[in-house]
Amino acid sequence: MLPEGVALPAEAATLAVTGLALDSRKVTPGCLFAALPGLRTDGREFIPDAEAAGAVAVLAPPGTQTNLPLIAADDPAAALAAIAARFHPGRPETIAAVTGTNGKSSTVEFLRQIWARVGFEAAALGTLGVTRASGRSEVGYTTPDAIALHEALDALAADGVTHLAMEASSHGLKQRRMDGVRVDVAAFTNLTQDHLDYHPDFDDYFASKMRLFEVLAADGAPAVINMDSDWGAKVADICRRRGLEVIEVGWRGKDFRIAEITPHPASQDIRLVHRGEERVVRLPLIGEFQTLNAVGAAAMAGASGVDAEDALGALETLEGVAGRLQPVGTTPAGAPVLLDFAHSPDGLDKLLRAARPHTQGRIVLVFGAGGDRDPSKREKMGAVAARLADHVIVTDDNPRSEDPAAIRAAILRGCPDAEEIGDRETAIRTAIGRLEPGDTLLVAGKGHETGQILADRVIPFDEPAIVRGALEEMEARA
Ligand SMILES: CC(=O)N[C@H]1[C@@H](OP(=O)(O)OP(=O)(O)OC[C@H]2O[C@@H](n3ccc(=O)[nH]c3=O)[C@H](O)[C@@H]2O)O[C@H](CO)[C@@H](O)[C@@H]1O[C@H](C)C(=O)N[C@@H](C)C(=O)N[C@H](CCC(=O)O)C(=O)O
Ligand SMILES: Nc1ncnc2c1ncn2[C@@H]1O[C@H](COP(=O)(O)OP(=O)(O)OP(=O)(O)O)[C@@H](O)[C@H]1O
Ligand SMILES: N[C@H](CCC[C@H](N)C(=O)O)C(=O)O
Ligand SMILES: [Mg+2]
């Protein structure tokens, strides 16, 4: 069904649309061109280009001037999502979606692994691309645009995938990229500062995230809520008002309650209470935040029809997610180096707290902050680093169009005692060289990323290889 506020042109019944495009540069003959008002420009300016490239119709707000048949929509982005869902109708039977500032990629990947373990054809879609048991392919965004998303859903269904776990980013939710997707299981991880470059204020950020529960979740769908988040109770209220089935997880979650966590060098024992029964699960990963994500994923699997005991049992075989507390190696003296994707104040806070129980000596932290991203998070990230790490090196992380030194200066306002080494490889090598027995080195911000974005160039940057290289050189010298 098309959303309300869409007027079809008289020619609608005879229009032969052979493709969809929301960028005029991607129009091919026979396409419907969606001309969306954007942040920087207005897609309607490109209607003549789309026409010249062979577009046969335009989707745009009412009153748009064009020679082509006009599908006039009050909310053209939502209409595009509905059209894309019709044009590429296939989709995995069960789609679970996770929103929250941090933990989405981890949770969807854990859910994929749990589903695969119980024998489902499962996939995850998000920041890491499309992940299946057979491997990974890029999609470019955490939540792809509606056209790319429905193409991907259709292809996955055609390939036999029945269960998909996907990330719902706030950009994606606000821009209606997922409005053509019926969500069978929804989940909320947490809400802390990020993306205030895009969202005008925190309320807008929160409201965008809530669209997953208020608009996209199927009627009566289960909603797994991390009650340890300051926003958990409010999100649970919103879900209940919408008639969703709330499933509470976390230390404060009554359905999957974490009662105790005992950290070991490379694992954690989680004492869990589910339906009044207590059990201990050994998670082969470190870090409290990984426990929360894993328990959330198990609750989502339970909500999708997997026996909850089987889902919890599957946690014992989980493999870590690329670039999330990923161990890369140790110095000859045994100090470990881990890569992580923390790129917000709360992400860094959770990362540093995760490493502490596993560190006898000092925690050394190398990190930066992205250019063209929420500038107000930089100093706060610096302050978290100063508070919770023992030695900090501030470096570059995708400066994009900004002056890298200015980004570092903003971070350094929060951690004035930190060292500053702009070149990321030099920073990592310097930090490794400084490690003493008992120390842990955390390199944060890039996680799974494979490039350093400087202005509009992407310079290949293989962080695991750089770390391994530096460790091998140390080994050779030892
Ligand atoms: C901030 C943001 O989300 N921007 C998205 C937005 O861009 P915009 O509004 O600036 O678009 P615009 O440049 O003003 O152009 C308006 C319209 O004209 C069209 N156009 C433009 C030029 C042209 O020659 N022809 C043409 O048709 C564009 O395709 C667009 O539809 O709409 C575009 C498509 O319509 C998106 O590609 C673009 O994503 C940009 C590139 C981006 O970097 N997005 C990131 C921040 C993002 O979405 N990240 C999230 C979250 C990540 C996280 O949680 O950490 C994600 O889901 O990945
Ligand atoms: N539950 C959590 N609570 C707080 N921080 C977390 C949590 N899970 C992960 N993190 C931190 O956030 C980082 C990113 O995790 P992950 O990639 O799973 O989040 P994401 O929500 O997908 O991020 P993005 O918005 O960039 O897609 C991790 O490397 C870790 O430092
Ligand atoms: N997907 C997120 C995380 C990027 C992490 C960091 N490497 C950066 O470039 O800021 C973003 O685009 O904001
Ligand atoms: Mg992600």
Structural overview:
The strands form four sheets. The chain has an eleven-stranded mixed beta sheet, sandwiched between helices. A six-stranded mixed beta sheet has the order 17-18-22-19-20-21, with helices on both faces. A five-stranded mixed beta sheet has the order 1-5-4-3-2. β17 and β18 (336-340) form a beta hairpin. With 478 residues, the protein is α/β, with parallel strands linked by helices. The termini are far apart. α3 (104-117) crosses α8 (288-303). The model has no long low-confidence stretch (mean pLDDT 97). The protein contains 14 helices and 24 strands. The protein has three domains: 10-87, MurE/MurF, N-terminal domain (Udp-n-acetylmuramoylalanyl-d-glutamate--2,6- Diaminopimelate Ligase, Chain: A, domain 1, 3-Layer(aba) Sandwich); 94-317, UDP-N-acetylmuramoyl-L-alanine:D-glutamate ligase (3-Layer(aba) Sandwich), CATH 3.40.1190; 326-476, Protein-Tyrosine Phosphatase, Chain A, CATH 3.90.190. The structure holds ligand UAG, adenosine-5'-triphosphate, 2,6-diaminopimelic acid and magnesium ion (MG).
SSE arrangement:
Layout: E1 6-7, E2 19-21, E3 31-34, H1 47-52, E4 57-60, E5 70-73, H2 76-87, E6 94-99, H3 104-117, E7 122-126, E8 129-132, E9 135-137, H4 146-158, E10 163-167, H5 170-174, E11 185-188, H6 202-216, E12 222-226, H7 232-241, E13 245-250, E14 256-263, E15 268-274, E16 277-283, H8 288-303, H9 308-314, E17 326-330, E18 336-340, H10 345-355, E19 363-367, H11 378-388, E20 391-394, H12 404-412, E21 419-420, H13 424-434, E22 440-444, E23 451-454, E24 457-460, H14 463-477
Parallel strand pairs: 2-3, 3-4, 4-5, 6-10, 6-11, 7-10, 11-12, 12-13, 13-14, 18-22, 19-20, 19-22, 20-21
Antiparallel strand pairs: 1-5, 7-8, 8-9, 14-15, 15-16, 17-18, 23-24
Helix pairs in contact: 2-4, 3-8, 8-9, 10-11, 11-12, 13-14
Bound molecules: ligand UAG, adenosine-5'-triphosphate, 2,6-diaminopimelic acid and magnesium ion.
Domain Mur ligase central: 98-301
Organism: Marinicauda salina
GO biological process, one term: cell division
